[in-house]
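User: Before I run my own analysis I want an independent prediction to cross-check against. Here's the chain; please return only the structure tokens and, at the end, one sentence I can use as a sanity check.
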Amino acid sequence: MNNAVHSDALVFFGATGDLAYKKIFPALQAMIKRGHLEVPVIGVAKAGWNLDQLRARAKDSLEKHGGLDAAAFEKLSGLLHYVDGDYGDRATFDALRKELGGAQHPAHYLAIPPPLFGPVVEHLAKSGSAEGARVIVEKPFGSDLESARALNRILHATFPESNIFRIDHYLGKRPVRNMFMFRFANAFMESFWNRTYIESVQITMAEDFGVQGRGAFYDETGTIRDVIQNHLFQVLCNLAMEPPVRTDSEALRDEKVKVLKAMPPLDQNNVVRGQFKGYLNEKGVKPDSQTETFAALRLEINSWRWQGVPFYIRAGKNLPVTCTEILGRFRKPPAVLPASALKHNHIRFRVSPDVAIAMGMTVMAPGDDMTGVTAEMLASRHPSAAEMDAYERVLGDAMEGDATLFARQDYVEEAWRIVDPVLKNAPPVNPYEPQTWGPNEVHQVTPSGGWHNPTVAPPAKPGAAQAA
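Assistant: Structure tokens:
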């Protein structure tokens, strides 16, 4: 299939599920409002529903999660179709083929559990619905390297790699994409963003809440699988990659894969896992669970640019704030001034809840000529309601055939290769108090100068810099 061809139908399996309810229907309405969705949308599920019930579900979804737009919803209702049936039943896919009508290049979005991918892909092929089609796969892309390879074999039996779109919605977030823009559109970044000037880089993804009723899912997943191996590795690649030689999606994805290829597998000594106190009381969690709700990792990138610069990743639930932030810490200058004057400079990127880029520099402390304090030059803004939601962006890109924001097979397998040793032979989990920055043992994996703990400030006052 030519990737310049726009999909002429969107089929989404799991149309009655939680993801569709919270994310997909709002994304579809937003696409309609921008004029980006003009093709049939066919929901597939086994719920015993009819089309009117799916439309009612979509309306309820928009009222609670997207803000109902009467005109856009009327158009969405007109585009909606529904096929009810078992994913293992050939008759379901014969009915889908009938609903597709004359569509020659549908996009099949699998918003379903991974064990169902195999039967669905097989039946799509047998019914003729896979020919000329794209498949959009929701994460997780396996649970380790072996299962990721098995999943790729299932997909490749029917679809070429160029027609497989593995969604990591985090890449659709504007602030994450903005890191790429900031790095390669500003000449000054190249002068210092390397091993000569940067001492360490740390990435923190903190959430101030627990598992929110998803105990059974989370207990089979854990922090490393849930957000580090996918979301935060993507952030790391945006930070560490070299400039692509062309502007097409493959050139960009080549550079991301090179970052992962330069990373040795994780060593147990470079990982600390934690579990917040009270997690074992969550519904669906095993009484003796050893699943981590916090992890801190030390990683290396053996490339020309980054060799010798440690990259630290920290993520967890029930931490003091909800915030995702990156801090690059500069090496200290030579000791021309007294030690009290020399502080680490830094560059700071905030991804959420607001967007910020800050430079931390040393200035004289008030009242003392030879003592230094850190001051920041800050550019920040709060996201606009008019900005594209991540799911709107990635669904639209997949239907257009733009693979830039999607994980390629080699990327997925390299990411699992890095974390696999720790998943197979995990260090113990250490308890930590809710609303703290993880277990005491985190000192074993801590950057020189300590972790930077993000704080969530109130919105910037009018007149503050708004350039980020």
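Sanity check: The chain has 13 helices and 16 strands.
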